[in-house]
Structures are given as structure tokens and as C-alpha cells.
Amino acid sequence: MNYNLLGNTGLKVSELCLGTMTFGGKGIWTAIGTLPQDEVDALVKRSVEAGINFIDTANVYSEGVSEQMTGTAIRNLGLKRDDLILATKVRGKVGEGPNQIGLTRKHILHQVEESLRRLQTDYIDLYQIHGYDPLTPLEETLYALDQLVSSGKVRYIGCSNLAAWHIMKALSISEIKGYSKFVSLQAYYTIAGRDIEREIVPLLLDQKLGLMVWSPLAGGLLSGKYSRNTSPGEGRRVNFDFPPVNREKAYNIIDVMQEIAKSRDVSVAQVALSWVLHQPAVSTIIIGAKNPQQLEDNLKAIDLSLDAADLQKLDAVSKLAPEYPAWMLERQGADRK
Questions:
Q1: Which residues are catalytic?
Q2: Short-list 46, 116, 42, 111, CA closest to 81
Q3: Which domains does the chain carry?
Q4: pTM score, two decimals?
Q5: Does the first or last residue of the chain, that is N or C, have fewer Cβ atoms within 10 Å of its Cβ?
């Protein structure tokens, strides 16, 4: 297992991060996973044995049950809290009241206490806003997060599912006000969905933010179960067809990945994960599992080193269509390289 710095910090995180959306299964989250505590304990144990030190959850996953089970697993296994990097998130709806949602100071300060209680810890390593809140001024959100860092309840702050201008505006406010800055972005990135390469990846590299990748297998579409002519009768994509994917393009990509997987005697999922690990902006990729077999297959991705020919084939079949202003910037910048 390799360990990468998380953005412009000295914090080292494992290149694979254990995701917890399959823990518990309550409400809408049953479509993703319904693991009981004993199976959660087993997945956490194996992940830590493999060198994973990073676990990501959120206050809304299974309506708080995911956080609770994560904390219980750490306690049941007798893991040292300081050996782990725990990340969770805030923004989503957690009740029927008008203020039980969003990124207000009130909601953030209340929800961090709830997350600490469920995780059975007195600090959170990485506290992330789970999306953009158009009703709450960014200044209010960032001030509340800065207070949490100053209090010691949170070590670092990050964001998720934001546009490039959201991130840059937040960084600018924090710079002007002297607040703690976002150190990372958690975003959807996969060989079947390279949208963030247009604006967000250049921003991350320029501002030295770490990238935590969610759904690197495109919601299971790149797991090896799907192809142009085959589709399983069960699985996450059957029950929860998300994130949106251009299926025809994805099948073209899968065709190439199948060739590479066969030549390397590895799974299609390992090829998909390895491709993400080869991307320069990536700090860690979040892997989730419904069973030990899935986890073991994903863990093997760190041992797969794609060569230049493999990467060229994968880039050719998956590259983004030219879009303005990117094609103009490339044209005008050719004489300045």
C-alpha cells in the first residue's frame, strides 16, 4: 500500500480508502448495501490489515447508521484511533425541520457533535461539506468550519461535489479571512466519467488540493459484470442506476479494459481502479464492498501497474470530446510550452 499526502498537508493517506455506504442499509441506502455489524467488522479488519488507514463515511449514510457501525467496528477490533484517518461529511437532510439540512452554522455545529457521538471519537480527521448550499453564504459555512478546527474537534476540512468556481471562491474567502482552507475535494471520477478533467483537475493541481475519488467503478458498471452483451439480473446498477453514464461510450471502454484484463490475468475492476490510481491529481480512491470477495479484488488494484501502451489505449477510448474554451487554450498555449 502506498501513502500519499492529502493536498498541501503533511497528512499521509492510503491510496485506497474504505467507503462505508454499504454499512447498515436504512432508508434509500438499502439499494447500495445492508451489511450487519459482524460483516462490517470483517471488512474493516481486512482493510486495515492490507494497509488502509483511511475510512470515509457521512452523517446521511443509512441515516447515521454507517457512522455508528464504523465507530463500533473500530472499538470491537481494538484499533488505535490515532492510526486511522476518519472522514465524514455534513450537508444532507437529517430530519423534517427546516434547519435540519444545509451548511448553516447552526446545522454544522450540531451535526459535528452527532457524528462524533456515533463514531465514538472526540475528533474527526477530515470534515467535508457534502455539496453546495445555495441558501447559505459561504462565509458563514467557512467560519463555522474554521471554529471546529480551532476547537480541535476537526483536524482538516474538505469539500465534495462542488463546481470549480465554488472551490476557488471558498479558498479565496478563507485566504482573506484567515480561515482554515479546504485541503481536499471528494468527487466522482472514473474512466467512464472524466468530466472533472475540464476545470476541476487543473484547479486541484494549481491550488494543491487532494482528490478523493468516489465511485471509481461508475456505480458498479465497470465491475466486470456489465458489457455490451451482458447485464446481471441483480446488483447496484439494477437497484440504483447512478451515477449517470454514457452507456455506449462505457461499453467501448469496457471492451478495451477486457482485452487488457485478459492479457494481464486480472479483473476488469482492477484495470478501472488502476487507471484512476495512475492519474496525477488523485490522492486516494474510495472503494466500497458488499462482501469480502469484492474487497479482495479491489485491494489487488494497487499491484497492477499499467504500462504506457495500456494507458494510451485507455485514454484514446475514454478521452473527453473537445470543448470550449479548452481547445482554444490548448491552441493558443502551444507556443508557450
A1: 61
A2: 116
A3: 3-336 (3.20.20.100)
A4: 0.96
A5: C
